[in-house]
Specification:
Layout (H helix, E strand, L loop, with lengths): L18 E5 L13 H13 L3 E6 L11 H13 L4 E3 L5 E4 L2 E4 H4 L3 E7 L1 E3 L3 E3 L1 H6 L5 H8 L5 E2 L9 H5 L5 E2 L5 E2 L9 H5 L5 E2 L4 H17 L7 E7 L20 E5 L2 H14 L6 H15 L1
Parallel strand pairs: 1-2, 1-6, 2-3, 6-13
Antiparallel strand pairs: 4-5, 7-8, 9-12, 10-11, 13-14
The chain binds iron/sulfur cluster (2 copies).
One iron/sulfur cluster (SF4) binds next to helix 6.
Length: 302
């Protein structure tokens, strides 16, 4: 399939009706590489011109930074230039159960969905784009825990030399060595940093964990997709400022020239095309992991 590569977001046709949720990541404090408010403003105008009622939406994070709470995320959204739009940060206690997946109610109840995704590298899935935005991005905290759970570290006391490296490496303070080794992994987003930094292999991932986790991502994406007919969803991938890690991380290096935008109702198709474009432009990401993710997502979303 050949895709139109848009160099300007205003050239993308957006004809969606009713309350139109624009689902996007509005950026982690200190990381300016998120989708630009200017692009969002163009989309908002286009949707309104066609009779739709656009609003911006995102869910709160599993890890405890500013976007962990609705109020904290609202502040970040204002700080990052999204204050002029209607922004709804979904509440964690309001969801719709779709095949066991807790989809944020604000998204589930929208009439149409624009899935606006910034394409980046990703620690867990190799590349993060539309499927990642649809799965992890559209569910409440319980749903996020379910996707991350299989990839969380497993601790082997016999191999541990109590060096404290993992304590220093965990960005969220989930590991402590005071009065013995303690791991509190309830909200661990399975970033793998402690595992890769442990010098003795005392922290590891269980065999088969990656496949289990990727299947949970794909099932969550499938549940969200069930809520929207094909003419009620448009996925837009922004291939600008493509960084090594996702917008949740601290700023990471840009790894590829700006490419443009892709748009399609099918999130998997534009993710596959995004990966192809990144590779052909020399972006060095963990493509082996992405290909495993793509394979599992394709089998679930077929
Ligand atoms: S995977 Fe390890 S480093 Fe990452 S958040 Fe979980 S406990 Fe912390
Ligand atoms: S990094 Fe590994 S060896 Fe060091 S304290 Fe943590 S688990 Fe133990």
């Amino acid at each position: 399939m050949s895709y139109i590569l848009y160099d300007d977001i205003r050239n993308i046709q957006v004809e969606l009706a009713g309350r139109v949720a624009i689902k996007l990541h509005m950026g982690e404090r200190g990381n300016p590489n998120h989708v630009s408010p200017k692009d969002v403003g163009i989309l908002v105008e286009k949707i309104a011109e066609n009779g739709g009622e656009p609003f911006l939406v995102d869910t709160t994070t599993l890890y405890k930074r500013e976007r962990y709470t609705v109020q904290g995320y609202e502040q970040v959204a204002r700080k990052h230039g999204f204050g002029e739009f209607e922004v709804v940060i979904a509440r964690d206690d309001e969801w719709l159960d779709v095949d066991g997946v807790k989809v944020a109610k604000t998204i589930a109840e929208a009439d149409s969905l624009v899935l606006l995704s910034h394409v980046t590298g990703h620690l867990t899935t190799g590349m993060g784009a539309a499927i990642k935005n649809l799965s992890m991005g559209c569910v409440v905290k319980d749903g996020k825990r379910r996707m991350h759970a299989p990839m969380r570290p497993v601790y082997d006391e016999l191999r541990c030399i109590r060096c404290g490296t993992c304590v220093k490496t965990c960005p969220f303070g989930f590991i402590s060595l005071q009065s013995g080794m303690k791991l509190d992994l309830t909200d661990c987003p399975a970033c793998q940093r402690c595992i890769t930094s442990c010098p003795t292999g005392a922290l590891r991932v269980q065999p088969g964990a990656m496949a289990k986790s990727f299947r949970e991502f794909a099932l969550a994406a499938s549940s969200v997709l069930k809520l929207f007919k094909k003419d009620e969803i448009l996925c837009i991938n922004s291939l600008l400022k493509i960084t090594r890690y996702c917008d949740c991380s601290s700023p990471s290096p840009v790894i590829c020239k700006d490419i443009g935008y892709l748009a399609d109702p099918d999130p998997l198709k534009i993710d596959v095309e995004s990966a192809r474009l990144l590779k052909s432009n020399g972006a060095k990401l963990d493509w082996q992991t992405w290909e495993k993710f793509e394979e599992i997502a394709s089998s679930v979303l077929k």
